[in-house]
Amino acid sequence: MRTTAALATAVAALHVWVLAAHAGPHGLWLSAALLVMTAVCLKCALGLWRARSPRARRAELTAMLAISSAMALAHAALMLGLPGLGGAHAGHGAMVAGSAAGVPSSSLMMLALIPLEIVVAAAAAAALRRLALRQPVLSPDA
After folding, report:
1. Residue 107 counted as domain residue
2. Are 65 and 125 in contact (CB under 8 A)?
3. pLDDT digits (tens, 9 = 90+) for 53-66
4. pTM of this prediction?
């Protein structure tokens, strides 16, 4: 469980770096949404790290699974440039105008973040499965 929490924390830290590097091109609302989702991810990771009961672990893992899946979908939607989501990141060049030299474009960062979010979601799902297998199954006849 703590491995999943550590992985989620590392990915959240990467999101903070992406936000710092590309806050301007994302706009206020998209940056605020990314910041809120990152904060929720960190809250789940911290909650999972501290969770002692199976019920608390299940709740944190379920939230982590949901938020990581939502982040992967959001990044994919932005990469594809779906209408209403602030334009296509896929049209960006190798460098974003005004970004520091050596900072990859937001397209490359999002392309890297999508599989990382999927890995966090898969780790949360696997941890949920392990947690469910540890719980005794009560039959209706008992």
Report:
1. yes
2. yes
3. 889 999 999 999 99
4. 0.76
